[in-house]
Write a structure and sequence with these properties.
Elements (H helix, E strand, L loop, with lengths): L6 H6 L2 H14 L6 H14 L3 E5 L2 H14 L8 E5 L4 H8 L4 E5 L21 E7 L9 H9 L3 E5 L20 E5 L13 E5 L2 H11 L3 E3 L2 E2 L10 H10 L3 H18 L29 E4 L3 H10 L30 E2 L1 H13 E4 L7 H12 L8
Parallel strand pairs: 2-3, 2-4, 3-11, 4-5, 5-6
Antiparallel strand pairs: 1-7, 6-7, 8-9, 10-12
Helix pairs in contact: 2-8, 3-8, 4-5, 4-7, 9-12
Bound molecules: pyridoxal-5'-phosphate.
């Protein structure tokens, strides 16, 4: 079986190093707020190119702490609106609603599946204060339209960089260093994955960095003195130790993902399968395009159930990212007592998000996939004979 997320195989590559460093952490007996987390923060900031990295427990925390920090700084308040793509993973939206702000679920682009930067103006109201851009599936969501829009309306831009570690623009700037602040995930199956939960906040803003660090430490910058009603959101020394090892390999792993994506895009050809595409479109070889790190390889088909069953019969596992869009989730079905409405979504965005949720299918992609496995996936897809209903 070719799995979509083979964590055993991906970690086997550096198992010896991981075991050794785990033993070192155990022997030392220092598990939180230690030198390995500090080393990770410094290394991560220098790779991304931003001034501050604050390690924390996971990406949902990173994002909600960023929003909360802006509230504590007086730059956001309850009831403010934050534009975010309607087809994102629920965590992006939870970070907004958890702080009692209102997500404006905006139309995704039908090709990139990222926030449609050409349709941003449709979501603006006098209450809009921020945009959360999600680099979905590993592709950077950024462009001049977004920069101009944020400047025109004086908006804070927060990046959800959970899926796109190592992606960069043509000018070399990395995702996570494009907006005012970014949340990062090191959930085990992400491109840069820990062996458990871990996350980080990055920013170039000194005040925001200090506020986030304080919030993540119970709201306390000075021991036993609590400035804010904060959180306990820390990265373990153990996870930092693992991540420091994995950082050595991540760029070559991302390149391997690009090679596989290139092979899939060049050689999968089927009238019922829509392949992912780079955005804006590029005539370059996919393997050389820095703006996508292919966390997921997501195709679209109107016969998804049939295709998934056929692939499984042929030893290929698939997943769906994501089957239910945030606006259809039970948790948002009631009215918020605070704001009167848990989110805003217009019919165009709703239709697009629901269509994508019905049609997307993630094929296996991973740096440890063998050439034979890649070949098997291509051949299997190309020889699919979908049944018509009648
Ligand atoms: C995984 C993910 C998150 C959440 O990350 P955690 O570390 O699991 O909290 C947030 N946003 C997106 C787009 C994700 O894929």
């Amino acid at each position: 079986m070719i799995k979509t997320m083979d964590l055993q195989a991906t970690n086997a590559v550096y198992a010896e190093e991981l075991k050794q460093v785990a033993a070192e952490v155990i022997d030392k007996g220092w598990f939180l707020l230690g030198e390995r987390v500090k080393a990770f923060e410094q290394q991560y900031a220098s790779i991304i190119g931003c001034k501050h990295t604050i390690a924390c427990a996971n990406c949902l925390d990173a994002l909600r702490i960023i929003v909360r920090a802006y509230m504590e700084m007086g730059k956001l308040k309850e009831g403010d609106e934050v534009i975010v793509a309607a087809n994102t993973y629920i965590a992006s939206v939870l970070a907004i609603t958890d702080n009692r702000l209102i997500p404006v679920l905006a139309p995704p682009h039908p090709v990139s599946h990222n926030l449609d930067l050409g349709r941003l103006e449709e979501s603006i109201t006098p209450r809009t204060r921020a945009v959360m851009v999600v680099h979905l599936y590993g592709q950077v969501c950024w462009g001049e339209e977004l920069e101009a829009f944020a400047e025109k309306h004086n908006l804070i831009v927060i990046e959800d960089n959970a899926q796109a570690f190592g992606a960069s623009l043509e000018d070399g700037r990395f995702s996570g260093n494009l907006g005012h602040a970014a949340g990062h995930s090191f959930y085990p199956s992400k491109n840069l994955g820990a062996l458990g939960d871990a996350g980080a906040i990055t920013t170039n803003d000194d005040t925001l960095a200090q506020t986030c660090r304080t919030l993540a430490n119970y709201g306390s910058a000075v021991r036993y003195v609590n400035q804010y009603a904060g959180y306990n959101s820390r990265m373990d020394e153990l996870q930092a130790a693992f991540l420091n090892i994995k950082l050595k390999y991540i760029f070559s792993e991302n390149n391997r993902r690009r090679e596989i994506a290139e092979a899939f895009c060049q050689r999968i050809s089927h009238p019922d399968i829509m392949l992912p595409a780079l955005y804006p479109s590029s005539d370059r070889n996919i393997a050389e395009v820095a703006s996508h790190v292919w966390h997921l390889f997501v195709v679209r088909t109107q016969k998804r159930e049939q295709l998934a069953a056929y692939l499984l019969d042929n030893g290929i596992q698939t997943q769906i990212h994501y089957p239910i869009p945030p606006h259809r989730q039970q948790c948002y079905s009631g009215q918020s007592p605070v704001t009167g409405a848990p989110f805003i979504i217009h019919s165009g965005a709703k239709e697009l998000a629901e269509r994508l949720a019905d049609e997307v299918l993630s094929l296996p992609i991973s740096p440890v996939m063998t050439p034979d496995e890649v070949e098997h996936i291509i051949q299997t897809l190309n020889s699919w004979q979908p049944k018509t209903r009648f």
